[in-house]
Amino acid sequence: MSALDPDALGARAESMIAALGSVSAEPGRLVRLYLSPEHRRAADLVAGWMRAAGLSVSEDALGTVRGRFGNASRRLLIGSHIDTVVDAGQFDGPLGVIAGILAAEHFASANTALPFGIDVLAFGDEEGTRFSATLASSLGCAGAFRPETLGLTDAKGISLADALRAYGKNPDDIAAAAYRRDEAAAYVEVHIEQGPVLESRNQPLGVVSAINGQTFLLLEIFGEAGHAGTVPMLLRRDALAGGAEAMLLAEQIARETRGEVVATVGRLNVEPGAANVIPGHVVLWLDMRSGSDAARSQFVERFKAGCRDIADRRHLGVTITTTREVPTTPCDAGLQQQLGAAVAGFESEPPRLGSGAGHDGQAMAKLCPIGMLFVRCRGGISHNPMEYASPRDMGLAVAALIRFIEKFQPG
Ligand code: GLV
Ligand code: MN
Ligand code: MN
To answer: Which of 32, 132, 350, 355 is the most exposed place for a label (fewest CB within 10 A)?
Structure first.
């Protein structure tokens, strides 16, 4: 076992994070959507790093960049995503790709013989910012891509299928992106925690026990548009007032679960959207997460019933569509133990914690056992340009990943 220098690894991670963080659609803020010109530039940058690290590089039909070390048929998959939310931080996603490259380089540069190969994967669609589905690229690797997703359109009406073609891909090749089950020994991802637990415990790294399940609901409310000055209050069918009640209902039910369920309306569409017109049609996007699938489905049932009551009372129409349903995904117990032992070589035994955020591991779990290592981030802040992880913490994560790989047995 060669000596590892977390500070040197962290300094390299920091400069790579900054380089990728400068690849954006907009000058003043980080926006890098799936299959955009910025995604292309970021993928090329990552591919160059992979080649320099001694990996052989390919790109699959969903745009996932793959850096391969070793020819063994059993593969350890290490990855994360390079797409971002709008006005993103620099660490969410890129850290896991960079950690994978730096760890693979450690073995590739010494041409270390391992009883398995390593594939570093840079996925392009974890955030779901451009199309309403998420995880298209990791689902492709897992052999679980849903073809109906190809018809989803972005804000400009471009379908996923057309966006793939414009990116130089052929949707007919998607099935070939799937790993065989006997190839994929495990999937491991390093990611910032995106929450405050590690910071509050003064620990740089944690091992993820499970990724919380998620339900996305699209709530459409139909009222009647009318003149803001003439229609008496009691005669209105105001879709936005109904939507506001529905939002507060979601907040109230989530609060009653005392932390078991979180619920967020992060997007709202109001039509016709004029200050002097009573809103006639409103669309709300509701995101719900929980570590308990039962609690999540109870929440959904209560919320739907409550929305019907609101609509009846206000003489509104309402439709509720589930656009995403992802169950809670446990991390493999053996991988948790091995990642914990790898961290304990540098730091005290790391805590186990659930992930409130979604990750590519949710898709990869359909293929093979998954494990995740969380890195402390300042103030628990994420999906925000203030996102920050220190070079030292990132370097410790890369060093722990290397130690994990050294001991990994593909089974
Ligand atoms: C992705 O980051 C998500 O959890 O929404
Ligand atoms: Mn992420
Ligand atoms: Mn994210």
So the answer is: 132
> Which pTM value belongs to this model?
0.91
- Å from CA of 118 to ligand 1 middle: 26
CATH class of 213-326: alpha beta
Closest-CA residue to 289 (of 308, 322, 323, 264): 264
pLDDT in tens, 45-103: 999 999 999 999 999 999 999 999 999 999 999 999 999 999 999 999 999 999 999 99
Give 3's pLDDT tier (boundaries 50, 70, 90): confident
Return the ∠ at Cα 102 (arms to 391 and 396), rounded to 5°.
40
Structure token digits, residue 283: 């669309």
For a substitution probing ligand 1, which of 80, 208, 359 has the most ligand atoms within 8 Å of its CB?
359
- What is the CB < 6 Å shell around ligand 1? 127, 357-358
Report the separation in Å between the CA atom of 214 and the middle of ligand 1, taken as the mean of its atom positions: 10
Retrieve residue 4's tokens.
Answer: 């590892």
Domain ranges for the chain, please list them: 6-211+328-407, 213-326
Residue type, 118: I
CATH class of 6-211+328-407: alpha beta
> Counting every residue, how long is the chain?
411
- Could you say which ligand is closest to the alpha carbon of residue 89? 3
> Rounded to the nearest whole angstrom, what is the distance from the C-alpha of residue 111 to the centroid of ligand 1?
36
Comparing C-alpha atoms, which of 309, 78, 324 is closest to residue 190?
78
Mutate which of 127, 287, 374 to test ligand 1's pocket (most atoms within 8 Å of Cβ)? 127
